[in-house]
Amino acid sequence: MDLQNIVIPFAASILIGALIGIEREKKKQSVKNLSAVGIRSSIVISLFGATSAYLGQLLSPVILMVSLAAIITLTIASYIYLVTKYGRIGITTEISTILLFLYGAICVLGSVQLAIILGILTTLVLSLKSYLHGVAKNVSDREFYDTIKFAIIAFIILPFLPDKNFDQTILGPLLSAAPQSAVAGLDVLNPYRIWFLVVFVSGVSYTGYILVKLFGNKVGLSLSGLMGGLYSSTATSLTLAQRSKEMLKIKTPFIAAITLACAISYIKSFIFIRALNEELFLRTLIPLGLMFLYMLCIGLYLMLSTKKEKFTAQQELKTPFTLIKALKLGAFIIGALLVAKISLSYAKVEIYYIVATISALFAIDDPIVISTSASAGNLLSMFDAKNIILLVTYLNMIQKVFIVYFFGNRKLVKPTALIFGGLLLVTLVGFIYL
Known about the structure:
Layout: H1 3-30, H2 39-58, H3 62-86, H4 92-108, H5 112-127, H6 129-138, H7 141-157, H8 167-171, H9 180-184, H10 191-215, H11 221-244, H12 252-276, H13 278-305, H14 323-346, H15 349-361, H16 366-375, H17 382-407, H18 413-433
């Protein structure tokens, strides 16, 4: 082992110890925390782990094991003393002490980058104590249980589903008259892929929901709409429209919020298309990108042109994930894929355009984007797939005008209609020239 390969791991272990040590020292001084671990102790412990790992490689692995046992013993002894002497409660410092030793050892064992990442994440978690406690306090029982259910379907159920296509077995008689290439062109009845799409779509929406929960009630309308669009542009627009009827004298902030919610929803489309069909993603990147930039620029202009908001957006959004919603989403995805496969196998592509239009008008846009992305290049040409996605996306956007008309302040309808009228021109550019 040359000098550079020796110095870098030890230097990294010292930096990790200093980083976590500074946080522990600040906590120790600010709240008079009863702990023997400060910045000096943290650096020494991390360096101890690195030295033990180095000697373990040089002489015997037993040295590292004995050193780890020693640091654990000392940590337990310190904890027992503090509990019996001062009645101290909590083991965060003790756990971070053992982690410091392990991070130092990991540096020398050849994973300096991993140790640094873990050290930064540990420091972040330790420094966000009050904030994380506040978040946990604000999480309802239903949200907590729904999160557990989501983890179950994502990490327990999904890995055990068969990654096998049952189209030929179940749909074979129905599609026996269709061309074989069409029958084999799109896998519909694949349990693993269908459930993966359910997890994927639910995960994106859940991420947006978490952002709204963390920040939505503490920021102005515009920023709340910006974050809520990743959760659901339709749900966010509906909430904002209903609030606009309670605040009739305020117009521009609501328009800005709805526009930004629609703009950020394009990110979901980019994610879905990129995950399912890279070629289609490249075909739709410019037209969808132009639509995204148009909505984003107008939303930001409206947000920045208004006076500082003296009120916040209290969004009453329900958790986007429940088992019933997951099953419904799975049913919609299967239905959209079946419609795509059957209609494109037997009928002309115009039938699929009609189905996509009707679905978009009823806010069933995500399953259509998914089925179109999956069909592109097999049952559907890239040109038609691009146009269908543009059509569905625009119809989903124009739907917000009707939401404002039926549920919001009528004074917002005209400026909102003008914005989405301009979006139509941008969409037509994507249809005709791209």
